[in-house]
Amino acid sequence: VTEEKKAVIKKINSAKPMRQLMADYFKELDEAATTGSGKVAWCTSVGPAELLRALGFLVYFPENHGALLGTSRMAADLIPAANAIGYSPDICSYLTSDVGSYLKNNTPLTKAFGMKSVPKADVLVYNTNQCRDVKDWFAFFAREWQVPLCGIETNRNLGELAPHVIQDLTAQHEALIPLLEQVSGVKFDIDRLKETMASSYRCTLGWKKVLRSAEHRPSPITFFDGTIHMGPAVVLRGDPRAETYYETLAAELEQRIADGVGAVDDEAYRFYWEGMPVWGKLRSHAELFAGHRTCVVASTYCNSWIFEDLGAWDDPFEAMARAYTELFIVRDEDFKEGYMRSMVEDYAINGIIYHDAKTCPNNSNNRYGMPQRLLKQLGIPYVVINGDLNDLRLYSEEQAVTQFEALVEQIQG
Amino acid sequence: MSAPDVTVRRTALFCGVDVGASATKLVLADAQGGVVSQAVLASGVDYEATARQCLNQALEQARAAESELVATLSTGYGRHNVGFADSSLTELQCHGAGCYHHFPEAITIVDIGGQDNKVIRLDGEGKRVDFKMNRKCAAGTGAFIEEIALRLDLPVEQMDGLAASTEQLVQLSSFCTVFAKTEILSHLRRGVPVAEIVRGAFRSVILRVVEMDPLDGEVVLTGGVAAHNPTLAKLLEEKLGRAVRVPPFAQFTGALGAAILSARQAAGG
User: Does the bond joining A381 to the residue before it have cis omega, within 30 degrees of 0?
Assistant: First the structure.
């Protein structure tokens, strides 16, 4: 029988301290929520985490929980519970699987970290820079727990970031303070915010260094590794432990480069992944590509947690407004196209995979002709796979594998 | 079309086997892609056994022994389940090679399969420059025609004859196979002739295909569904406003391509 080409995935040693760091993070959250020793703020993954941390909140990111529901493959069992109370199967499957998890009182945090449930929020803070679904998601829990919901309303599909846009968003960040002070019981201290932002910025630089190491040939890291190791950049930015972690990880990757060790043995092809991961298929995708001597070296997704504008922390509110608005997902097609072109060049990409995630239109960038336009401009072949971040009922393994393999064949010529 | 000439003399025999979602096709060919024999069976549930049965039939037809096979290449969804294959490639690659064998020029191939559709663009040298597969939905594939046949209580073999028997058709507006079947119920209730419904279903398949790609240049229609339903080619021509070419034994194009590519691999290319 001809073997499906799957390879063994190389372990990154820094995964061990990362797991410990994540375990500590969840333990602290659980303790705060169950004993009342601290206040818990829920925050969207590209929301104003620095502001919340500066006000003494322990910050929880439900999108991280959404990803865990995907990787653990619990999502498909939980989504129907949310559908049954009126949340459509066509909306964000992070939302539906997370709401389903709450309704069924079933969370992967129990097995992973011994937590009985997700940490109950004292306040929920969103930024609609990604989508409207995050606000609707948080609104469910605000109603359920009768706790305040507040956030930043960001317009999307932006080209240049005009001064009036930044002014508005700066003001919206500032306007959050009175309510957050009231919930946290902590007086806002601008110096503490600046310190937190400086830490977050150093975390960003560390994370960027990790991702940019993939420019090297062979790449010491894959996109699939990145989706796991981005955890601290998402949930612990602004906490010095995240900075330390990325120093450790970057050093390990530098050593790989020095030793000539690639994440994929005998790397021949370098792909770009556009869109969300298919969380329940991370391992099989990683094995599939490695088996074809293909390293997925770069992605829009992992790069979405690089916030370089936080570096201007002397003016912290404007810096946050810029950092959380200059992101790929907030921008218009021209910006996205330019971004993709430079990534293809920087990482010497041979092929592009567009994941059209059924329930995540804002993270699916194949829907307005971009693959065809970039093919014309760059001559880099692509495939579009239909799937979803969490709902595996929307993903066809056979079709996707055939398309991945066909793309490799096409490049081989 | 006549059966392949089994009296062709050969110096080397190459096998291509295309284990598709609905049918398994096998071609024995010489090094130049000349077909020596071919076999087809429903894929069933045991792909390995079906592929083996096809091989035995084709060998018998060719009056050849298995030991005469120089190399075997498998393709299709079940490509990794063929124990006697030396290598495998996707059906995108094999359909491309099979069609280019018949039409050696820049072509746009449309493969209507049992469960999916593909558009494959080849340049003048036969190199694939682009491909697309349909979304995760059976609308517009062979499975759609089978479902409609079931709804109309007709043997699937009669569908093409019915579609060809009329110039009239009903519009099936639904993208979804299940909803299309509901639409058909309403047409039946209104007394629309079955042939017009069948032709409407065929046109619906073609509409799904032209949504996938502009289909520029020379278009080649291939695959088992097109082979068994020549009306599809006529409807595609009608939609595009120009001629569409169909290779001989279109159901076997992928298997032929696999045999050609196995010969190429054996030659070190």
Answer: no
Report whether pLDDT(A189) > 90: yes
Burial A275-313 (b: 16+ CB within 10 A, else e): bbbbbbbbebbbbbbbbbbbbbbbbbbbbbbbbebbbeb
The mean pLDDT of chain B is 91
Residue type at position B183: E
Q: Tokens representing B201? A: 């279903």
**Dihedral of the CA atoms A294, A295, A301, A306 (nearest 10)?**
-160
CB atoms near residue B269 (< 10 Å)? 7
* Chain B nearest CA to A214, separation (Å): 27
Of B80, B83, B93, the CB nearest to A4: B80
User: Which residue in this structure is represented by tokens 């010529």?
Assistant: A413
Burial of B243 (0-12, 13-18, 19+ CB in 10 A): exposed
pLDDT recorded at residue B136 = 65
Q: Strands of A269-274's sheet, edge to edge?
A: A294-299, A269-274, A351-357, A382-387
User: Mean pLDDT for chain A?
Assistant: 96
Task: Name the minimum distance, in Å, from the CA of A406 to any CA of chain B.
Answer: 6
Burial of A73 (0-12, 13-18, 19+ CB in 10 A): middle
Suggest the residue from A393, A402, A411 to mutate for an interface test with chain B (most B CBs closer than 10 A): A402
Whether residue B7 has pLDDT greater than 60: no
CA distance A134 to B268: 55
pLDDT of residue B10: 54
The residues facing A354 across adjacent strands are: A274, A384
Is the distance from CB of A150 to CB of A127 less than 8 angstroms? no
3-class secondary structure, B190: coil
pLDDT band at A79 (very low <50, low <70, confident <90, very high): very high
Distance to chain B for A413, nearest Cα, Å: 7
Contacts of A183 (CB under 8 A, 6+ apart): A39, A41, A122, A123, A148
Alpha-carbon distance A335 to nearest alpha carbon in chain B (angstroms) = 25
Find the closest chain B residue to A355 by CA distance: B135
ipTM: 0.85
B88 interfaces chain A, CB cutoff of 8 Å: yes
Contact A413 B127 (CB under 8 A): yes
Asked if B221 and B244 touch (Cβ cutoff 8 Å), the reply is: yes
Contact A119, A29 (CB under 8 A): yes
**Both tokens of residue B238?**
């009608």
Of chain B residues 108-127, which have a CB less than 8 A from chain A?
A: 116, 127
pLDDT classification of A1: cutoffs 50, 70, 90:
low
Q: How far apart are CA A116 and CA B154, in angstroms?
A: 56
| Segment A257-280 mean pLDDT | 97
Beta-strand ranges (E) seen in B115-242 are 117-122, 128-133, 219-222
Amino acid in the structure at residue A364: S
Which conformational region is residue A301 in: left (phi greater than 0), alpha (psi within -120 to 50 degrees), or beta?
A: alpha
Tokens matching residue A23 = 């375990």
Residues in chain B: 269
Q: Residues 89 to 108 of B: which have CB under 8 A from any A CB? A: 89-93
Could you give the CA distance from residue B114 to residue B33 in angstroms, rounded to a whole number? 25
- pLDDT tens digits, one per residue of A312-356: 989 999 999 999 999 999 999 999 999 999 999 999 999 999 999
Three-state secondary-structure class, residue A114: coil
Q: Nearest-CA neighbor of B250 among B233, B237, B269?
A: B233
Listed in order, strand segments (DSSP E) in A217-375 are 269-274, 294-299, 351-357
